[in-house]
Amino acid sequence: xxxxxxxxxxxxxxxxxxxxxxxxxxxxxxxxxxxxxxxxxxxxxxxxxxxxxxxxxxxxxxxxxxxxxxxxxxxxxxxxxxxxxxxxxxxxxxxxxxxxxxxxxxxxxxxxxxxxxxxxxxxxxxxxxxxxxxxxxxxxxxxxxxxxxxxxxxxxxxxxxxxxxxxxxxxxxxxxxxxxxxxxxxxxxxxxxxxxxxxxxxxxxxxxxxxxxxxxxxxxxxxxxxxxxxxxxxxxxxxxxxxxxxxxxxxxxxxxxxxxxxxxxxxxxxxxxxxxxxxxxxxxxxxxxxxxxxxxxxxxxxxxxxxxxxxxxxxxxxxxxxxxxxxxx
Length: 329
Fold this sequence. Notes:
- The structure is a single chain.
- The protein is an alpha+beta fold.
- It is built from six helices and 19 strands.
- The chain has helices at residues 8-26, 34-37, 44-50, 89-105, 183-189, 241-257, and strands at 2-3, 41-42, 63-66, 107-111, 121-123, 142-145, 157-164, 171-175, 192-196, 215-216, 218-221, 224-227, 234-235, 259-261, 268-272, 276-280, 293-300, 319-321, 325-326.
- The strands form five sheets. Strands 1, 3, 4, 5, 7, 15, 17 and 18 form an eight-stranded mixed beta sheet that branches. Strands 6-16-8-14 form a four-stranded antiparallel beta sheet, with helices on one face.
- α1 (8-26) packs across α4 (89-105) and α5 (183-189) crosses α6.
């Protein structure tokens, strides 16, 4: 679903968001400290004007696009060469705006082992990662995956904000609910046959670490089937040929129903991480400050998932909380 950004209400929300975030950044705030240095929650007036544009995605498609909500923010500067470079005032304002936006949807969090525990992540091409299966890749397609599928505390929603995409690369999306798998294939994929490891954006697991638990690829929520999938970082140690065939059929089905969602500067893509998987087409980076640049925020919601996930360790990764919530009037 696409929410157009040409209405006066969106412009009003975008201007208020930009004014607040720019003022905080001018005072030296960052996304990591805004929740304890400046206020305890998203200001009520701001939350009120943002909320109509920030509903969770439809649970069939698993995706929602909000056009232009970040368009009133200033230029954050050229695309960095890698995440972690010093942030300009404009880039800090953008991070704060994205944190505030995500906090209207739910509980924003990060991971201790990813991008130094930052709450807002930079997704951009970096030298040395061109052919990797991580967000910093470029020359290879980024395969379908559930964000942080290795962890029982993975995000319910994923927010991707477009800073720059002058080449029109967009993001690839596919929903398990439109994949058209047979009842027999789904029954096989409900079996706990897959081990999922953290991707290469996380530190390597220590020697002697216990193997991840076996998990199901498909599981059932009250309103339909859901997916936990990252074949690039998965092992299937003991499954028979029927399961492996169903797993391969899932990948082919996602390819068939997948589509590219174009997003431009100031647009926000909200993905239901239990329903839709995402990826990206390959592209040639320039490393000249004009490459594709997205910002990512992870959002938790009080959702039911399979009971066995409560006993998973998540490969030792712990969440970093923002503690920023919507203020009540």
